[in-house]
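[agent] plan:
  1. take the single chain provided in the ticket
  2. run structure prediction with default settings
  3. attach structure tokens to the ticket
  4. add a short note for the reviewer (M.T.)
[agent] executing step 1
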Amino acid sequence: MSAMAKKAKNFKKSKTGLYVSLGSTAFGALSVAKQARLAREDGDFLRLVDAAVSAAAIVTGLAILYRELKRLGDDDVLLG
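[agent] step 2 finished; step 3 output follows
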């Protein structure tokens, strides 16, 4: 494995990598909110269900990422 590939693999488990993942997951929530709003306006039940399932996946993903941050022993005052 090259040094660059090893560095990229370790980035995912670093604090910075987790913060980037948290941000991108939270950004995905904006897309789901827009999808839900359009589904309500159109009265499309299936798209509304899809948005609800996507929102549940985002919440679960954020919870997992938060747990990983806690495991890293983060000294950040905001995380406790």
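[agent] step 4 note for reviewer: The CA atoms of residues 26 and 56 lie 12 Å apart.
[agent] ticket updated
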